[in-house]
Amino acid sequence: MSARETALAALLANLTASAAARPAPKPVVLRNETYPQALPPGGLVVLRDGETALAEPIMSPLRWHIEHEAQVEVVVAGNTAAARAAALDALLVALAAGIVANRTLGGAVEYAQAGPADLEDVEFEGAAPLRAARFNVTLQFSAAETPLS
């Protein structure tokens, strides 16, 4: 397994554990999946693999320092705008706290940092309004031989 895949799998495990520690109903955590037709009662967290932002060689012995930007999408529902805002805020705080508590993601990365969230209200005709957020998580790690290792 590549260093990138190891880092992303560790981030998914971290997000899943943070979501599982929440009170019921618990959010569903997915990776690179499309949104389900019905939003789970506890909300939805989707990890997107993102892209490599930096790949810098370090010589003797050859290693690559990599910064990878993964995206996390979070969606919640609620009866009122205030309830949706509170639910989203609580879930974002829990996800960020999980990353802060384990910056190396169990040794899979050298450092993980959650960035600021872009917030938006989402409305579909005939459906209850939702509140959503998207934020990046910067994963810093090293790879041997090539950035693809």
Kindly describe this structure.
The chain has one domain (3-144): 2-Layer Sandwich (Alpha-Beta Plaits). The protein is elongated, with a radius of gyration of 17 Å. A hairpin with a 7-residue loop joins β4 (111-122) and β5. By secondary structure, it is of the alpha+beta class. It has helices at 3-20, 81-101, and strands at 28-31, 44-58, 63-77, 111-122, 130-144.
Report the end-to-end length measured between terminal Cα atoms: 8 Å
Tally of helical segments: 2
CATH architecture type = 2-Layer Sandwich
Number of strands: 5
CATH topology: Alpha-Beta Plaits
Q: Biggest β-sheet, characterized?
A: 5 strands, mixed
Helix residue percentage? 25-40%
SSE arrangement:
Blueprint: H1 3-20, E1 28-31, E2 44-58, E3 63-77, H2 81-101, E4 111-122, E5 130-144
Parallel strand pairs: 1-2
Antiparallel strand pairs: 2-3, 3-5, 4-5
Helix pairs in contact: 1-2
Brief descriptors of the model:
alpha+beta, Alpha-Beta Plaits, five-stranded mixed sheet, 41% strand
